[in-house]
Amino acid sequence: MLKEIRFGQEEILYITDQEETYAALRKEGRYVLPYYHEGNRGAVFPGAIYAVECLEEVEEASLEMAYRRLAGLPWEILQTERCVIRETTVEDVDSFYRLYEETSITEYMEPLFEDRDEEIAYTKNYIEKVYGFYGYGMWTVLEKNSGEVIGRAGITWREGYELPELGFVIGVPWQRQGYAFEVCAAILAYAKTELLMEQVQALVQPGNTNSLRLCEKLGFTLAGETILDGEKHLLLTKSLQRE
After folding, report:
1. Fewer CB within a 10 Å sphere, N or C end of the chain?
2. Could you give the dihedral angle defined by the CA atoms of residues 212, 216, 218 and 224, in that order, rounded to the nearest 10 degrees?
3. Which DSSP symbol is given to 231?
């Protein structure tokens, strides 16, 4: 069996249950998913990161997401009234450096690598390991009208902590315009409905009053204090169950 699914003129995903066909398509540089069923349970498809069962029940949106992952294209996560939130790409790195030039951005958060090549290598690894494993992470925020990168936001896991964490940064030119609340509120809704998370945390240094006010507006409450990288942080949490 060989099935061809088109998402655009040149965007084609192949699905096959045959080892030889799979190998030939991969050799040609095609994007292909193995299809497992009762007749080929012992089949081996080297290098496959996704596979399909019950093909008739798989939604086209899921197949398109698989295609985009295989093709190295970012997933669009969600849209708000003014923004698009999608996975980060290597091409975003230069925009990040422009955002992080403002000292107020790095006052309360970790800066980018001084060496651009190191940041690119980190980004590539993040795309492969974090997006590939979790399906979520820190994403890129774009303004809809201009398509310009205006920040980063998302849900991550921090080593040593039990809850997923909301993280966000909006570039200085777009601050005090409601973008951070708009984006973060949408991400929290996504965390509940799509990621099925029940509670999230945020870590904020006491002097970061803007972030503290935003977290309070989003419904976070103080749960305690913690030390991170030698600095005291307030640990705030938010339940998603009651929403």
Report:
1. C
2. 80
3. E
88, with CB counted inside 10 A (0-12, 13-18, 19+), is buried
Half-sphere exposure of 30 (CA within 13 A, CB side): 21
Q: How far apart are CA 76 and CA 89, in angstroms?
A: 11
- Tell me if residue 222 falls in helix, strand or coil: strand
Residues 51-93 pLDDT 10s: 999 999 999 999 999 999 999 999 999 999 999 999 999 999 9
- Phi and psi of 200, rounded to 5°? -135, 160
Q: What is the pTM of this model?
A: 0.90
Q: Each residue of 174-223: pLDDT tens digit?
A: 999 999 999 999 999 999 999 999 999 999 999 999 999 999 999 999 99
Q: Three-class SS of residue 88?
A: coil
d(CA 139, CA 77): 8
In DSSP notation, 19-76 reads HHHHHHHHHTT-EEEEB--TT-TT---TT-S--BSSGGGS-HHHHHHHHHHHHTPPPE
